[in-house]
């Protein structure tokens, strides 16, 4: 019986996403289980395993038909050792995830960082299909990233490759970042950063609808800010312009180093679509080398929340192939 | 007769460096031929070929004992097509270098950018030995770069990967760069950049020995500036500090993306050694993520002018192996 299926698993703070796919990427089934964070996440892998066994039974598939499972975790991963060094939102620390999960599932397992796998998912079956050199920015609460070089995930020596959100874009007087540095891209171009700049600019521009909204006790969100800009609010427009200036600078600098074919923008903030891409491209074009600019194209992520499981399945098929 | 030798060729503006090596990197012979730039470099490959044949005869080696030849060229290269798109200092444009040279030599040939090959040379047999993830900065008239990811040269989709010198470090009001942009790393941290800043600062600080030197009609060089700093000249010190601030910022930002094990500094300016590395490390540490910083180490290039031929030989053994 030739191995022809892969299992993709994406561990998140509230739920674990799972999917069964063929090695060609055809989805047979996808489902979720809740993330049980009790006892520092000690039950999560057992829950995954029970659920997988049940689903394979229903699908009439045997574990021997699987190349194996890929699993994505938000945190610092040592892929070679199969360890989660630290996953703050899950509770795992120095956790031998590959050994435990492969024992439970009785199939080979490979682990990687969730942001890397989102990039791999978009590369395999999303906005980056066919682009063997690709950068993905995931713009949500923070700015995450994943990089594909020559058709493989860029890991770096310690698994920290692709930490795009912590490129310094405000070298002097920048806002402190969760990482311990200051002036990181994440402080100005994430949802959090955009809202922070929005609050500052609203106070400075009392004619702005953002100021009025705040006066009414309604907290600013990126959605509000993008909507206000559509209505012609110049303050909202300037906030977006500033966030995209820094994102364009960082994207161009990374592109000058990597010469990618595609730059994929995902995460919650990417819902703004062309309203985000237009100023982003504009600033990118100013800071990218001519040939680098001509080689590259921006694209909105296509897989949404499925990027992680798709990337995990890609990881299994790519890293576990016999 | 098993193929066990490689030929490394490094085309420069004044001379072509050549070397015969075993696949393990043992040097049998190295020599130079002048670069004949007449008729847009039309005779260079023929000169190389004649010289190689002569040397192989003397070494009693047959072309069938060679895996092939690697050749490095300063310019834009299309490696897959075996073309030099444009090499301004040599005169080649849309030049099918692989086809012509492999006809002349009657062995397989592979071409790459000279800066990439300098990085590969240091990775194979120099300061970066064993570091499968490596960044090399070549600081001379300009700032060149080469990147090794997972033991292979990073090329990007169009061969522009590693254009480290054109990362923007002064986004607003930067000095115009040869590339058409402004505020590139090359404008502040190359020898040219350091001398340019030196001239500006010398005029502003008339007590500096740099000002006195200029008054005597002696042009500033990076060597002068580093020497003045050793003597305690504060203006010279501030010039070096500024150049290394920007180099440290760029190196940290690239490292945050690539998570390298080694950052190799080569080129003429690297002769300043610890006088350069000390302020560089200091600024790098400010802008690099903690884990990225812990994973990485600075090193001075070890191969000097031989890095290019060594890298070209590495390219042949790596890309032409049957």
TrEMBL record, chains A, B:
GO biological process, one term: glycolytic process
Enzyme class: transferase
InterPro entries named among the record's database cross-references: ATPase_NBD, ROK, ROK_cs, ROK_glcA
UniProt GO molecular function: ATP binding; glucokinase activity
GO cellular component, one term: cytoplasm
Pfam families reported in the protein's UniProt record: ROK
SUPFAM superfamilies attached to this UniProt entry: Actin-like ATPase domain (SSF53067)
EC number: 2.7.1.2
Domain of life, per lineage: Bacteria
Signal peptide stretch: none
Alphabetical keyword list: ATP-binding, Kinase, Nucleotide-binding, Transferase
Keyword Cell division: no
Family in the record: Belongs to the ROK (NagC/XylR) family.
NCBIfam families: ROK_glcA_fam
Name this protein carries in UniProt: Glucokinase
Organism: Alteribacillus bidgolensis
Higher taxonomy: Bacteria, Bacillati, Bacillota, Bacilli, Bacillales
